[in-house]
Amino acid sequence: MGQTLIEKIISRHTDHAVRPGEAVDMSVDVRAARDFGGANVVKNLQRTGLGIADPEKTLFTFDCNPGGSDQGYAENQQFCRTYARETGVGLRDITAGIGTHIAIEDGLVGPGSTFVSTDSHANIMGAVCAFGQGMGDQDIAYAWASGKVWFKVPRSARVMLRGMPGPHATAKDIVLAMLRQLGAGGLLGYAAEIYGPVVDTLGLSARITIASMATEMGGIIALFPPNEEIIAACSAPSGRVFEPLAADADAEYAAEIEIDITGIGPLVARPGHPDDVVPVREVAGRKIDSVFIGSCTNGRIDDLRAAVEVLRGRKVAPGVVLKVVPATRTVWQEALDEGLIADLMAAGALVGNAGCGGCAAGQIGQNGPGEVTISTGNRNYAGKQGKGEVYLASPATAAASAVAGVIASADAIPEQPVLFARPVRSAARVPERAAPAEGATAAPGAAKPMLLRGRAWVIAQDNIDTDMIFHNRYLAITDPAEMGQYTFDNLAGWEDFARKAQPGDIVVTGANFGCGSSRQQAVDCFKALGVQAIIAQSFGAIYERNAINAGLPVLAVDLLAAGLANGTEITVDLKSGRVTWDGGEAQGEPFSEVQAQIYQRGGLLVAG
């Protein structure tokens, strides 16, 4: 039986041919940690007395907050610099840019490679047909110490893009069309392979744009079979020889998906949901305050060229702020050499250091309460890029909107910009802070119960993302004891959860819980409160790993459909996956052997 792309890549990094559903130990070619996750990775290693398996394959990337403009980031960055000097671990400091892009630019990865990082968009590597995964702090610490990770071989989906897009559509519009059809969980748990006539026309930048948003569809990764251009782009920087990689003709796919992109034009995702996608014309004329062009999704040189093509000879509308952040220093230099930086400055743009930009707190791109932003980023969850509204669009649409003063596509810019009638101000609300609750966790090595009883907190909502669970403004926190007080304080209606939760409680919720970022804090905050388990219809792939590795029981059971009422006392049998309560029961997935072993140890990094 033939293999899919993901099966071939993982097989090459294990000792046998793998099949879907199999949990394997997989060697990792490149292991990275970012400036916010890096400090947690190091502290995990130090707490457990572990070292570095291979410093030459291990590196920090400081891309979230170039410049260290936030004291928490500055402290973590210096902490990581010191560790790098002591151990020989590689370092791409604040001048370098986004780590995933650097790995491609420097030839560290190519077709068939494996890469892990604390970046939830590490699956951007699918653009060059490499394995890439965002993982939590404990996962990355284990990879640094052992050179491998355990991984459950995902099912594969074959995604066929039918037809060709319209003349004004870009790669961003293609991936927004995918999101419109598939939704936030349409690729949940899948490794997708992308095919279709348009694929041959897509260069590296375009493939990066599409691959980077697999996360927003719940996917493990979106893989593009590499052509000669991609292989050359990966091979040239390092002189390494990367070979073509293709799925076998008789490979088996768990899903066959067709997406018709025939004639699509510019699209936009409305605030709060990357999958709430409509044609730009449906929201055209919406007054905006700011524009952000950049991120790992649209910060490449081709993206800046597309923006400048619209901006050249024009000015940003009065009162509108245009912020531009190239993905890497290399892109910045290319833009400078080509005169793009001069064009952006002439148009009135603010051009920042290479890095993540608006996706990370503390760097260029955040917006304030009431601010309306159109962004080329990959996420527009509430609170992700600030406290305002965020629309997602392509660089061309973003640049056109900056000139128009309202949302507009590049082929429909009004002759005169739309001006503000009067200033708009709104006051920021200072959230209440509760004291950290003490968790009721057993000592490492103690036997853990497989039968749990507790009060259920029923949160009847799907797609609760990591910013709702533990907002990115707290990412600099590295002490788990401080995390509990911030649990759910960005989830509407549940801001007081941390003050009401008691040790032994069980959280019950809907589908795709924990989608979004790879932050470990979104798991550790529950442990700090003493929450003993989380039950959901399904989990975001990274979140599920983080919970398992932290020894926090997670179980996939649809208790919302079973009609479970909030506050009900429930019994959870981890071994069988069965949940019972007075007058009801439901059957879910039992603990896997790997999950049970890690849980009984008290966590991935706790010695068995």
CATH architecture title of the largest domain: 2-Layer Sandwich
Strand order of the largest sheet: 22-21-20-19-23-24-25
- The CATH homologous superfamily of the largest domain corresponds to Aconitase, domain 3
Morphology call: globular
Give the number of helices.
Answer: 18
Q: Briefly, what CATH class of the largest domain? A: Alpha Beta
Question: Biggest sheet, in brief?
Answer: 7 strands, mixed
> Share of helix among residues?
25-40%
**Total tally of structural domains:** 3
Name the average pLDDT. 93
Our measurement of the CA-to-CA distance between the termini, rounded to an integer number of angstroms, reads 37 Å
Radius of gyration: 23 Å
Name the structural class. alpha/beta
Q: Report the sheet-strand fraction.
A: 15-25%
Give the number of DSSP strands: 25
Unreliable residue runs: 428-445
Q: What features would you describe in this structure?
A:
The protein is α/β, with parallel strands linked by helices and 608 residues long. It folds into three domains: 5-260, Aconitase, domain 3 (2-Layer Sandwich); 268-404, Aconitase, domain 3, CATH 3.30.499; 451-601, Aconitase, domain 4 (Alpha-Beta Barrel), CATH 3.20.19.10. Helices cover 26% and strands 18% of the residues. The protein has 18 helices and 25 strands. The strands form six sheets. The protein has a seven-stranded mixed β-sheet. α3 (71-87) links the parallel β3 (58-61) and β4 (90-92). α2 (37-48) crosses α5 (137-146), α6 packs parallel to α7 and α10 (301-311) packs across α12 (340-347). It is globular, with a radius of gyration of 23 Å. It starts with a helix and ends in a 7-residue tail after the last helix. Mean pLDDT is 93; it is low at 428-445.
